Amino acid sequence: MSRPPKPAARPDKVSLWTYVKLFRRDILSAQPARLYRAKMAAFKTPFFRSFMVNEPALIDLVLKERPMEFPKSGRISEGLRPLLGNSVFLTNGADWERQRRIIDPAFEGGRLRDTFPAMVAAAEAAVARLSPGVVEVEEQTSHAAADVIFRTLFSIPIDHILARQVFDEFRTYQRTQPILNLAAFIPLPSWVPRGFRRQTKRSAKIIRRLITELTAARMEQITAGTAPDDLATKIMTTADPQTGERFDTQEMVDQVAIFFLAGHETSASALAWALYLIATHPDVQARVAEEVAALPDHPELSDMSTLRLTRDVFREALRLYPPVPMMVRQAAQDETLRDRAVPKGSQIVLSPWHLHRNDRYWDRPDDFDPDRFAREDGKAAQRCAYIPFSAGPRVCTGAGFAMMEGPLILALILRAFRVEPVEGQVPVPVAHLTVRAENGIYLRLSRRETDG
Questions:
Q1: How many CB atoms lie within 10 A of CB 189?
Q2: Which CATH number fits domain 16-450: 3.40.30.10, 3.40.50.720, 1.10.630.10, 1.10.10.10?
């Protein structure tokens, strides 16, 4: 049994230029080791001040108690704007409130029950694509998660021509887009180029064109009364209860882009790491295999309540490898945090990566231990120091979907296959758009019915 891989920390003190280069390559290894135990840390550059808050009380203050006074940082949105436009992920204030009023109803109440059959179809298709032998699982989980998004959002499978083109282009985009660009470090006027890689800009443009085709076609179906009752139709026909306005095609393209990014990238990342963790902990895998063997051939939503260990494995993967490792807010006014002056405009960094591995709150935080969530200490830590989907008003709209989709796909894969690590292939976590393995995650699959 091995300890899950963790990137090496950088030296405690480096030059700003070195820090910028490290940050653009990978934000995880760009941080010093002391941040894993810090309650708060400050970082100063010639252009701005940054404060990482790593204490539950401070995180609650920023995310839950006074979220409007700590809006999302415009510096961070610079790098994602070409793809996400004016999506709910990037907006603040009245724009964000209006967008959430239109989007949230699509994810409430019985919508999870309505979309569950599409999730099952995507999970079964993912299992059917697998075969015994060495497999790069990040590619497979990306395919599966994208399939879920297209089936639940637009009622089309991943092999639909437009869906497949979006997926293929997004694979290029997420590998070429650093999580931050130059404008995150240096205040630049609007006319100064942002330093996007040519391939990144090209991929973003293609993705948005393809999503525009899907969205415009759905708008025509809605007008004709022939649209399927899926998430896209629900969102596009929901009026803001305060203004009566609906999303136009361009606004919907922005939202679909973030649904695809958040719903596909994050689930794919967590699923791949969950499979790796299972492969390197055969005792846990044996228990999960026993649990999932009791599932019916085609699971119903009610069957998900029986997958307690499978759910906790996925939850533990989200703790060790939170797909979005850092979130950045901005102080809208002068603040005092932990008796330290925080000037207006300062960047407030919240790091699930460091919070989830802080031994002030977690027992043996670098170990894979899905049983921790059944113990009192683990339950307490989960309540105060576990934010894979953020928290407060800006909590991920699709968190409930992710916690259903992830364990479901994991369960169906592990019902069909045994997974083992490949000798010499230890994945190194890095942060691109999400926490991925630098050179992929390779596992050896064998069919369970052939096990002796």
A1: 5
A2: 1.10.630.10
